[in-house]
Amino acid sequence: MEGYLLTIGILFMLYEGSYCELYRHDYYCDQAPGGWLKFNPIPHTWEEAALRCYNEGAILASPLDEEFSKTLSNIMIDHGLLTTPIFTGISNVYARSEYQTMEGVPISNLCISWSAEPNIKPSDQNCIAMNTNGTVTALSCLDRHPFVCYRKSGVQLNECGAVDNGFVLDNRTGSCYKAFNMLSSWPESFAICAREGAHLAVINSDTEAEVIWDLAKKVLAQTPVPSWSYVNIGFRSWSEPRTWMTIHGQSLKDAGYDKWSPNEPNHEHERCGTLFAGSSVKDGVLNDGECHVTRKFICELDPKINAAVH
Ligand SMILES: *[C@@H]1O[C@H](CO)[C@@H](O)[C@H](O)[C@H]1NC(C)=O
Ligand SMILES: *[C@@H]1O[C@H](CO)[C@@H](O)[C@H](O)[C@H]1NC(C)=O
Ligand SMILES: [Ca+2]
Ligand SMILES: [Ca+2]
Predict the structure, then answer these.
(1) What's the whole-number mean pLDDT along residues 231-243?
(2) Which residue has its alpha carbon closest to ligand 1 atom 11?
(3) Fewer CB within 10 Å of terminal CB in the chain, N or C?
(4) Domain architecture of the chain: domains with CATH
(5) Residue 54 has what pLDDT?
(6) 218-252 burial string, b = 16+ CB within 10 Å, else e?
């Protein structure tokens, strides 16, 4: 009898183990919906929420069946969300007459119950939210609500533990990087890296300065913008007089790289961190720049943190 139970136990563990393969450290595996879930407590508009999930290689979760609906309810209860609904992936954003989940399942194929009369306004973009008790309600897509991202199992992750192959491992630092060719303010750059599950690149050594400088040179050469010969990276200043800190809270010296360009930092109103990479004289060293000025930027991802075993 004991041997029998042990066998069952081991089989169960094997099943669990093979079922829950590697995925991002911030997602957890759930057997009921058959995949990975992540609760996002910060209220977002529907579009922001959909984009956020997309950037994580996932989609906005919908109550696809009763079990999935229960899983979502339990997530809400576990996070103390008793009166605030979450956005689901169900909406009519593509065509006013067509309500479907992100997967493309029409609303008529879902077993959902409305919290009151279906309060859909025919002419509007409506996004369907779910209450803690499992009922659904139609809301403006511009409202802000928490949401759950969902990733079906069977994910192919690259060596960076990322879905996005734009992140490439550099064997000199053991970190992964992605250079963005678009121009963004420093706060936007910070937010885009965060959405990708990464962070604005933080220079932790002379070697890493070279790695990031190389990437910056390449991305700046892609579409040359002569007046922007630098990229946004992960440090900035606070208070008066200015105190320079990496986005991970360390002084530049403690972080491992504090080589400023000659005569930098120069202007009090330049509070955001950049790296010179396009003007031969000053290349590969730090500069203080204005936060609102748009520049190309570099995100960094630690593969060891991202691809944790569950
Ligand atoms: C479910 O919750 C919603 C919103 O809190 C509420 O309006 C509705 O009456 C509840 N329905 C049931 C069946 O409890
Ligand atoms: C590091 O990567 C470079 C370029 O891809 C390669 O030539 C080199 O052999 C690699 N070094 C190690 C130690 O893996
Ligand atoms: Ca780093
Ligand atoms: Ca400056």
Answers:
(1) 91
(2) 115
(3) N
(4) 21-152 (3.10.100.10), 168-306 (3.10.100.10)
(5) 87
(6) ebbeeeeeeebbbbbbbbbbeeeebebbbbeeeeb
**Structure confidence at residue 19 as a pLDDT band (50, 70, 90):** very low
Indicate if ligand 1 lies below 6 Å from the C-beta of 137: no
What is the rounded distance in angstroms from the CA atom of residue 268 to the CA atom of residue 45?
36
What is the Cα–Cα distance from 78 to 80, expressed in whole angstroms? 6
> What's the confidence (pLDDT) of residue 231?
95
CB distance 115 to ligand 1 below 6 Å: yes
Ligand 1 proximity of 91 Cβ (cutoff 6 Å): no
Task: List, in sequence order, every residue forming a beta bridge with 97; answer none if it has no partner.
Answer: none
Q: Which residue's alpha carbon is nearest to atom 9 within ligand 1?
A: 115
Q: Is the CB of 133 under 6 A from ligand 1?
A: yes
Reading the block at residue 105, the tokens are 């399942």
With contact defined as beta carbons under 8 Å apart, do 60 and 102 qualify? yes
Instruction: Ligand 1, residue 113: give the atom nearest the CA.
Output: 13
Q: What value does the mean pLDDT take over residues 241-253?
A: 94
Q: What is the mean pLDDT of the chain?
A: 85
3-state secondary structure the chain: CHHHHHHHHHHHHHHHHHHCCCCCCCCEEECCCCEEEEEEEEEECHHHHHHHHHHCCCEECCCCCHHHHHHHHHHHHHCCCCCCCEEEEEECCCCCCCCECCCCCEHHHCCCCECCCCCCCCCCCEEEEECCCCCEEEEECCCCEEEEEEEECCCCCCCCCCCCCCCEEECCCCEEEEEEEEEECHHHHHHHHHHCCCEECCCCCHHHHHHHHHHHHHHHHHCCCCCCCEEEEEEEEECCCCEEEECCCCCHHHHCCCCECCCCCCCCCCCEEEEECCCHHHCCCEEEECCCCCEEEEEEECHHHHCCCC
